[in-house]
Amino acid sequence: MDTPDPESSTTIEERFFVNVKGAMDSLQLFLHTSKKLASNLGKPFNRDSKPVRIDEDEFFRLKLRLEAIRATLKRSDGLGLSDEFDRLWMRELRDLEYRAEDVVETIQFEVLRGTRFEEFKRELLESTGKRKREAYNLFPSVTSASVFLKIKKITDRFHEIARQRDALRLQEEDGNRLVKPSPITPMSSHSACQLVGRKDDMDKLIEWLKSDELSHGTYSVKTIVGMAGVGKTTLVQHVYHDHAIQSSFDLKIWVHMSQQYDVVEVMRKIVEGIGNTSPYLSELDSLHHTAIHHFRDKKFLLVLDDMWDEDPRHWSSLQVPLTYGAKGSKLVVTTRSMKVSQIMCAKRYHLRCLSDDSSWELCRNRACQGRKIELDCNMKAIGKRIVSRCKGLPLAAEAVGVSLSFSHEEKHWNRVLENLLLTEDDEVSKILPALKVSYDLLPLHLKRCFAYCSLFPKGYVFQKDVLVKLWMAQGFIDCNGSSSLEEVGGKYFYYLLDRCFFLHPPFHYPTEERYVMHDLYHELAEDVSGKEFNRNEDSKMPTLDEKVRHSSIVPPEHLLEEAIQLGSFGGQDLRSFLFVGEKKPEGVPFPMNISHDLFVLLDCLRVLDLSNTDIENLPCNLGNLIHLRYLSFENSRIRCLPESIGGLFNLQTLNLRECIYLDELPKGLKLLDNLRHLYLPLYRSRRILMPYGIGQMTSLQTLSVFVMGTETESCRIEELSNLVNLKGEMHVLGINNVTDPKFAEEANMQNKLKVEKLTLEWSVADSTSPDLNGELASEVLEKLKPYHKLEELIINGFCGTRLPSWLSDQVLLKLTTLDLKRCNKVEKLPSLGKLPSLKRLSVHSMVRLT
C-alpha cells in the first residue's frame, strides 16, 4: 500500500497555521538572539570606538531565523489563502520581516563601520585638513539603545499579532464557508460576442487554415497570443464557424483548457469532442488509443482555448494522437503566454488591441442592444471619450457598453464618464478579476515585482534595465545559481512580458529596451499593491499611512511654480521614494527643497530617486541611509556628493547621468564594494575629477565614463586592471595623461570580456599641439588592445602618429563599427580590410591623412 501524502488529509488552512506556528517559533528565537547581539553593542559608540565584536555563530543563527521567516512567507503564498484575516496576518508577518531585516543590516553596518571607516577618516584628515569633529561625524555610529528600541518594538508587535490571531479569528464551526465563483467562464465554440475590427485578423487566420502548411509532420500549429480581454477566443470562435472552412476538415474539436492542467482530462475532452459522448476511460493509454482511432487519416481542426500550461512534457503527451491525422490538419491555441508558443514550436499570431473607432463601434452596439438608436453629437462625443479609456480592449468596451445601455440619457452617460475618470466604476471592477487570474498564477517574487510597477503613472515608458535594478534594490530577485542578479531580473521581466503584463510600445526605441503597460493591467497593479504602495500625483507632500513602504511623487505635467518641500512623510519606514518626473524638452528641472533631517527620518530607504530636480546640495547625513541600494540624481543640478556616501556599503546603483554641474566625486566612493553600476555625465564643459581608488570597486559592471586627470589624487589607467566584470559601453577619457606605456598595459583591456562598445579619447585641445610626444601616444594606444569580441570602437583626439597594429592583425573578429575622429597626426590608415565583421567605418577631421 502506498504511503499517504501527509498533507492530503489536512486542509489548506491547517497547513497554513502549521507554517505560521513555525514562523512564530523562528521569530521568537530571532528576537532572543537579536537581544543578545544588541547587548554586545554596548554603550553608544564615540569617535574613539573600536570595531564591534559580535559572536559569529550567533549572528549566523540570527540570519538563519530571518531566512526561515522568508521561506514561510513564500510557502504560504502558494497555499491559496482565501480568508481575509489570514492575508492580513501574513501582511503583518511581512512587516515584521522588514523590521527584522533592518536590524540585521544595522548590526552588519556597525561591524564594517568599525573595521573600514576609521582608516578612511584618518586619510581624509591627512589629505583635506578637515576639522577632526567633521571628519569623525561622517559615519555616525548607531547606539545600542536605538537597536534595542527597534527590537523591543518588533517583540511587542509580535505578541500583539499573536493575541489578535487567537482572539479574533473565526473557527470552522462558526459558519459554512462560501465558495467564490471562478473569474474565468469556460467558453464553447459558439460565440455570443460581436466581432468588430477584426476582419484582417480573421482573413489571415482563415488563409492559414486553408493552406497546406505543415510544421509538425502531418499538421501545423498556430498560437493566438494576447492579453486577457483582447478577444482571442471570440476571433477563433468566428473563424471556427466560418462557412469558408466548414468543408475543409473531417473533424472539428473545441476544448476549453482549465488553469490546472490534467493531461488525462484534456485527452478525455478531445475524445468526447470527437464522438459526442463521454468516454468511460481513466487511463491515458486507453484514451490515446481511442483518440488515435478517431484521428487516423482524418483532416482535423483542434482548438485548445485558453492554454495556461507551460510544461513541455504535457505537450509531448498531448501531440501523440495528433500525428496520426491527415496532412493539412491544424491545431489552434489561444493563450496569454508566449512561452506556450515556444514550447509548441508554433507560429505565433499576436492579437493587438482595437482601434478607437472599432472600440466605439463595439461599445455603441452593446449600448444600443442591437437597435438602431440615433445618438446626437454630444452623446457620441461622450461615448468616444469613454471608449478612449478602454485602450482598445474589447472586454472593457463591451463592459462599458453594458453600463451605458441602462439609459440613453446624456446625464447617465456623463456619470459613467466621471466614474471612469475616477477609476471607481463598477465596470472596471468586473474586468479586473479576469486579468487577476494571470496575476494569481505568478510566483511570489513576480507578484512583488508587478505590484512595484504601481509606483509609476499610467502610460509610463518602462526601461527594462532600470526596473530590474529597482527590483534588485528591494530584494525581490532570488539568485542562487551562477547567473547574476541582473540576468535573473531580466528573466523575470521577460516572463512578465511573455504573459502580456508589459507590451511593446506603439513607437520604437531602436537602442533601448523600453516597454509600456496597458491601463487595465496598471489598475490591476494598483489593486494588488494594497497599502504597501502609494503614488501621489500632486505637488504636495502626502501624509502616508504607517503601513506604506514604497512611495512615489508624479508631478503635474505643467512646470511647478512652487518648489516641492521634501520633508517629513509621516511614515518613517519607507523602503522606496521615487520622484517620477519626466525630463522636459527644455531641460528645466522640477524645483525641490530637501529638509536637513530627511535622511535621518527615512533611514530604512532601499531606493531613492530624485532625478530631474533642481537640487544642488545634499545634507551630509546622506550616509545615514545605510540600507540604500539604488540612488539616482540623473539630470539634476547636483554639484558634489558628501563624503558620507562612502558609508553606503549596500549601494548597488549610483546614477549621475546628465549631472552637468557635478565637479568631482567623493574620495569615499572607493569604499563601495557592492556598487555594480556607476553612471556618470559624459558631455560637460569640463571633465569631472575622479578620485584614486576606483580600481578597488571590483563589483562594478557598469562604468560609463573613466576619467584620468593631472591631479595627484585622480584615478589612473592601471586601476582598470581589476575591473574584470565591466560590460556594455565604456568611455575612457584623458588618455593623454598616461605617462608610460607600461601603465596602459597594466590596465589589461583584454580582460574586459563583456565590454561591447569602447571609446578611447585624448584631449581634443592637445591633439594638434606640436609639443606632444606622438610616439608615446602611439605606444600607449598599442598597449590598450581590447578583447577580441569587441563590437564597436571609437578613437577620438588621438595625438599619436600611427594607429595600433591590432587594427589590422585580424584580432577584433567581431568589430562591426569603427569611428576615427580628430586623429590629426595620423597620415596612414592600417589595413582595415582585415577586420572580417566591419560594416561601418567613419573617418573624419583627420587633416594629415593621405
TrEMBL record:
**Does the record carry Metal-binding as a key word?**
no
Q: Which UniProt keywords apply?
A: Leucine-rich repeat, Nucleotide-binding, Plant defense, Repeat
Domain Disease resistance protein winged helix: from-to ranges: 455-525
Write out the similarity annotation: Belongs to the disease resistance NB-LRR family.
GO MF terms held by the record? ADP binding
Q: Which GO terms describe its biological process?
A: defense response to other organism
Q: In this protein, which residues make up the domain named R13L1/DRL21-like LRR repeat region?
A: 717-846
The record ties this protein, via InterPro entries, to: Apaf_helical, Disease_R_plants, Leu-rich_rpt, LRR_dom_sf, LRR_R13L1-DRL21, NB-ARC, P-loop_NTPase, Rx_N
Xref: SUPFAM superfamilies = L domain-like (SSF52058), P-loop containing nucleoside triphosphate hydrolases (SSF52540)
Domain Disease resistance N-terminal intervals: 41-117
In Swiss-Prot or TrEMBL terms, this protein is called Disease resistance protein RGA2
Every NB-ARC domain range: 199-370
Does the UniProt entry include the keyword Transport? no
Q: Which species expresses this protein natively?
A: Rhynchospora pubera
